[in-house]
Amino acid sequence: MVRPQVYQLSVGAAFDGLSPQEKLYAHHMAKAAWNGTRIILRQVSPEANGIFNFIMALYHSCDGNWEQLATETGVSIQEIENFLNYAATFLSNVGNYFGSGDQKFTPDVSEEALTSLASVSLSASKLLEQIKDPMISPLPSSLGHPGPFTQSSYYLGENCLESSEDIATISKLMEDQSIMPENTRLKIYQDSEACCYDIMQASVVEDKVALEGFGGSGASDKKAFLMRGDHKEELERICDCLQQAIPYASSPAQVDMLRQIIESFQTGSLEAYRESLRIWVNDKAPSVETVIGFVEPYRDPLGVRAEFEGIVGIPDAAETKILNTLATKANQLVYKLPWVEDTGDSKGPYEKELFEPPDFSSINSLVYCSSIIFPGINLPNYIDIRQDTGYKNIIFSNRMVSESSRSRGLHMVDASEQDTFKKHRFHAYYIWVVLHEILGHGTGRFLTESSDGGLNFDIGNPPLDPFTGGPVESWYRAGQTWTGVFNDLATTVDECRAELVGAYLIDDLEILSIFGYTGQSEVKPDDIAYNMYLQLGVDGLRGLENYDPTTQKWGQAHSRAHYAMFRHLLRDSGGLYSVTSNLEKNSLTVKVDRSRVISHGKPSLGRMLLKLHIYRCTADVSNCRRFYEDLSHVDEQALKWRDIVVSKKDPPLVFSQANTYLVGDDVKIKEYEPTARGVVQSWAERSIE
Asked: Name one GO biological process term (predicted).
């Protein structure tokens, strides 16, 4: 495996600025977040918890003195370094599959060296015996629909997803009984003469209840059960930490939010969790920001079950002020998007009449316990809460800074432009992420039917489909959700639409001036726009890293989105891009015609954006699938490009995160060096049970 690039998420100065009460709140919320680690590991692969234990066992056997371990076991320092690189990458991704791309990575260490390292303790030897084969085996090579080359820990038991009819019936059964899927997994097994499915729901409470109505009238060959108690031990510890945080909350609303989260984790009820999100959205600009729960469904091959994550952060006042300036202007900026053009004062049927300025914060991450650490997030993911209550945008400033030292895919930029690309990349990337979050994920109005049959539009005078000119023919029926209708397409189409919004608006002078980019600044608006389109080309090609030619599946929602955007631009922007490749020299270069960026590139992005937006708002999954699957198809030419991209893959980014601990009634913070050793030490000192 490639040696990772380790970066420290520095947060000490921000933490020191908190009051004693705020520090105690942050500490207990941090402990709650880290206690979710084993849930994530369990969701990644069957062997992930064992590998975690093995790494910790080796650390404790030598108390972090790896040179001593090398001497004691006769393993070379080079193999120790290779193992540490693997361990740090594993810990930062919370599992043995990359958070970005879902592809498996294995240690560049011989079996003999692993056996020698494990010989230092009986526990390490037993652990290695259990996890060695799956740890070093290249298969399953990625996460996804269970098969010969892929696996998913959301679906347990052989052939769990084999019957699409059964899965559809179970989904309908869950919907009818108000069992939301986000905090569940599914298990299949044979019991006597019946094929049984357990809907495993995350909760402290344990019980098992038969669900009526599965398998048709009078059928007894198939049964379904709701089995509560998945992740019981971890959720118990998390609830204890949340309970300890309550006395230090900054407001009664925050206390209520924590109690609702505890209720959800104890009982498995996502209604309580959804209520906590409504409170969270209205908790504007807290001194300590938190996110905890089953949040992102990226890794579920069906796109509905969510991975656990825990985040604690401290606002950056100066950057937050700039972001809030943008937020106050967001309602007017919405008028510049393709589906609200030329509609006068009204934004039209596909956009909310009033875009309420969301809470938009730049925070320093104290804890980001997740398989992937994003530069920014927009939550909650429940569309009804977003439309009725609102949402929050968060930019992680200490995570974002790591991008300023990276120019990923630089080898695909012409040599004459590489210095300029590096100089301007972060400036364009930052604004792209900001616009992606606030106006990408924040815009749009779904056409929906309520449970009583009412519609949120006039059926007598329905909205017009901009592509056919006729009335819309589809909308979200009662009980339907975005993820339920679009399934495996939901997350990647949503991310693609958000990325398109950010790129489409990147040249707007009003937006750029908020961030200090004017005709008088060192980096000028034209530089930002040009770099954005060059990034679209580079990232579109880089996205091929996360396409698996064996299974013909994409492993990451954003990567598929970037490739689809680039393919659309290649077809539809009148020669804006050129791609040259030389297989013999293993070179691949993308160029942008600067004179066509705004005249050809922007209208092309607008056309793609409008299609995805209308498909999304009208629940038109059939046309969306046809359009998006064609754009994200990887043909023979793209496979050749992929070979070059993979051979020059950028090193994975690994993060060193801080710990907090109590000394009497005082909370102290400890940061760790940005090395593989530092990352392993930080996790060992978290004492995760």
From this structure: proteolysis
Query: Strands 547-548 and 553-554: what pairing?
Result: antiparallel
Contacts of 109 (CB under 8 A, 6+ apart): 79, 82, 83, 86
Question: How far does Cα 564 stand from its chain's mean position?
Answer: 18
Given CATH 3.40.50.1820, say whether it is the number of domain 150-231: no
Global pTM exceeds 0.70: yes
Cα torsion angle, 258, 39, 234, 397, sign: negative
Annotated binding site: 436, 441, 495
DSSP label at 108? S
Residue 183 CB: number of other CB atoms within 10 A? 25
Ranges assigned E (strand) in 221-373: 222-230, 289-296, 307-315, 359-369
Q: Among 198, 54, 76, 192, which Cα is nearest to 131's?
A: 54
Interatomic CA distance for residues 162 and 486, integer angstroms:
19
Catalytic positions, written as ranges? 437
Total residue count of the chain as it appears in this document: 689
| Helix (H), strand (E) at residue 301 | none
Instruction: Answer whether the bond into residue 46 is a cis peptide, omega within 30°.
Output: no
CB distance 299 to 383 below 8 Å: no
Query: Which are the contacts of 269, defined by CB distance < 8 A and separation ≥ 6?
Result: 263
**CA nearest to 255, candidates 267, 247, 266, 265:** 247
Give the pLDDT confidence score for residue 359 in this predicted structure: 87
* Location of structure tokens 């309602």: 331
The angle at the Cα of 556, spanning 182 to 11, to the nearest 5 degrees, equals 80
Query: Hey, CA dihedral for 413, 417, 418, 424, is it positive or negative?
Result: negative
Cβ neighbours around 175 below 10 Å, total: 15
Tell me if 395 sits within 8 A of 363, measured CB to CB.
yes
- Residue 516 is given by DSSP the state T
End-to-end Cα spacing for the chain: 29
The overall longest dimension of the chain from CA atoms, in Å, is 81
675/656 Cα distance (integer angstroms): 8
Domain segments of the chain as ranges: 150-231, 407-647
Report the 10 Å Cβ neighbour count for 455: 13
User: Which pairs from 402-407 meet CB under 8 Å and 24+ separation?
Assistant: 402/7, 402/9, 402/653, 402/655, 403/375, 403/429, 403/430, 405/7, 406/5, 406/650, 406/653
**Per-residue model confidence (pLDDT) at position 355:** 79
DSSP reduced 3-state for 463: coil
Numbered residues of the known binding site for Zn(2+): 436, 441, 495
The pLDDT of residue 219 is 56
Quote the tokens at residue 649. 């893959």
* Counts for the chain of helices (H) and strands (E), in that order: 25, 20
The pLDDT of residue 221: 85
